[in-house]
Amino acid sequence: MPIAEQLAAAAERFSPAERRVAEVVASDPHAVAFGTVAELARRSRTSGPTVVRFAARLGFSGFVDLQAAAQDEIADALRPAAARIRERPATDVVGQALTADVENVRSTLEAVDADEFAAAVALLGDQRRPVFVLAGEIAHGAGESFVTQLDLLREGVTAVSGSPVRVSRQVAQIGRDAVVVAIEHRRYERWLIETLARTRTAGADVIAVTDSALSPVATGARATFAVSARGVGPFDSYVGTMSLLHALLAGVAARLRKSATARLDAVEAAWTATNELIS
């Protein structure tokens, strides 16, 4: 089980001091993967024995075992498609893809925290607040789909993309009233992480849709959704991500039912008048 899932499963059993250790581990996996007991204790304002008890609480025999697990996760996260493609290919690609993606959807949606989901829907459904969507190159399709459909439900939705100059201009518009949706899996693009840091500095609320609670995309997020992304071939699967985004859109549509209905009716009338779509 990934460390992020172990943290979630053990969360209710943490003491206040252990919870501080968990927060450091969740926000910066390198702190446990490549640090020491003393360093982790200092960063979490606890003690060495607390760090050791924290590791035991997660089911590890000690800090060394916890550290090894964190190192394995980071190593796997950094393993590029060029390395994965060299593995022995699946014999039943369709069958394995079906199994993997059904599990991706199940794991993703079952892991959703009801309170965080409600908070995210409330943020996205507040039409006084502009929404900006950041997505990496591989996540671009999921991001564009989300932007297009959210824009059909409400005004003020922007996809942050383009040249560095254009991105900087868009980010300059992000203030404390903004909501930022960040969609990115491992390996994380530097521009996105740096841009996300700028939006947090501006005071925007961030909704993170990423592959792990340990992801840098999740740092400081108002709501985090860790999606399952296991792929059959060399690439991560975005089926779980799309399912999560679909759920968020459904939640916003329900929240904005009256105004969204009027907006969709107007759009449908415009399409019909211009004969843009073939039924």
What can you see in these coordinates?
The protein is α/β, with parallel strands linked by helices. It folds into 2 domains: 3-77, Arc Repressor Mutant, subunit A, CATH 1.10.10; 104-270, 3-Layer(aba) Sandwich (Rossmann fold). The chain has 14 helices and 5 strands. A 5-stranded parallel sheet has the order 2-1-3-4-5, sandwiched between helices. It is globular, with a radius of gyration of 21 Å. It starts with a helix and ends in a 5-residue tail after the last helix. 35% of the residues are buried. The model has no long low-confidence stretch (mean pLDDT 87).
Write the layout of secondary structure elements.
Blueprint (H helix, E strand, L loop, with lengths): L2 H8 L5 H12 L1 H5 L3 H7 L4 H10 L5 H15 L3 H4 L8 H18 L3 H12 L5 E5 L4 H14 L3 E4 L3 H8 L7 E6 L5 H12 L3 E6 L12 E4 L12 H17 L1 H18 L5
Parallel strand pairs: 1-2, 1-3, 3-4, 4-5
